[in-house]
Amino acid sequence: MGLTVVGIGGSMRADSQSERALNVVLQGARLAGAQTLAITGADLVLPFYDPAVPARSEVAHRLVHALRRADGVVLVSPGYHGTVSGLVKNALDYVEDLRADSRPYLDGRAVGCVAMALGWQAAVTTLSALRSIVHALHGWPTPLGAALNSTEVSFDDHGVPSDPAVERTLRTIGQQVVQFAQEHSAGAQCEDTGHARTPRRG
Ligand SMILES: Cc1cc2nc3c(=O)[nH]c(=O)nc-3n(C[C@H](O)[C@H](O)[C@H](O)COP(=O)(O)O)c2cc1C
């Protein structure tokens, strides 16, 4: 079965620029051979995560189920007051439901991170916050991440960024998520069969 990359992010705004950025990363993942699933907008509107309450809304179930099965993840947040938006952070709090899984949290998954804000300062601090969250969730931030400044780049109604370099960067992040998933899955199969992996050159 093919690999699945789950993307989470964007804002509640109808023309959310960060959601469009997420879609470009997911395009990159598809070009690298993965199936993708975007969880955005109303699908991120969840009750505040309460570890003491086991009941979950249908929307929360879908999110947790998708993340449990994901081979790779993409997180995109607008910068709100210098950090990850409450909408995205509350969704990420639900990863706690994966704590007792055989692959706890985001263990073994590469996570591409992108932040978008109205200036460089919040774009950079938000990207850094996302990567810290990924570390806490046992995930593997991709080598390439992106801090986008919406005074310098915008996405049109078709989701195409005004700067082709941004498109290349976002697609590369998607490709890196898939590449990690492919290598991780190949490594797991070698362990199953007892074969050593071929060492990589360079
Ligand atoms: C509540 C709120 C807080 C924000 N805080 C910041 C901020 O601290 N720094 C910044 O550069 N932009 C800030 N912004 C602007 C957003 O980060 C920026 O417009 C972003 O691109 C919006 O993404 P969206 O189009 O997906 O909604 C804020 C916007 C909102 C609504």
Low-confidence parts, pLDDT < 50 over ≥5 residues? 197-202
What structural category arises from helix and sheet content?
Answer: alpha/beta
Q: Beta fraction of the residues?
A: 15-25%
CATH architecture, by name, is 3-Layer(aba) Sandwich
User: Would you tell me the overall average pLDDT?
Assistant: 94
> What is the CA-based Rg, rounded?
17 Å
Reported for the largest beta sheet, the result is: 7 strands, mixed
What proportion of the residues is helical, as a percent range?
A: 40-55%
* Cα end-to-end separation: 30 Å
β-strand number: 7
Give the ligands present.
Answer: flavin mononucleotide
Q: Shape, please?
A: globular
CATH superfamily: Flavodoxin domain
How many domains comprise the coordinates?
Answer: 1
The level 1 CATH classification is Alpha Beta
Number of helices: 5
Describe the structure in your own words.
- By secondary structure, the chain is α/β, with parallel strands linked by helices.
- Helices cover 41% and strands 18% of the residues.
- Strands 1, 2, 3, 4, 5, 6 and 7 form a 7-stranded mixed sheet that branches.
- The longest helix has 30 residues.
- Helix 1 packs across helix 5.
- It has a single domain, classed as Rossmann fold.
- The chain is built from 5 helices and 7 strands, in the order E-H-E-H-E-E-H-E-H-E-E-H.
- The C terminus is likely disordered.
- The radius of gyration is 17 Å and the shape is globular.
- Flavin mononucleotide (FMN) binds next to helix 1, strand 3 and strand 5.
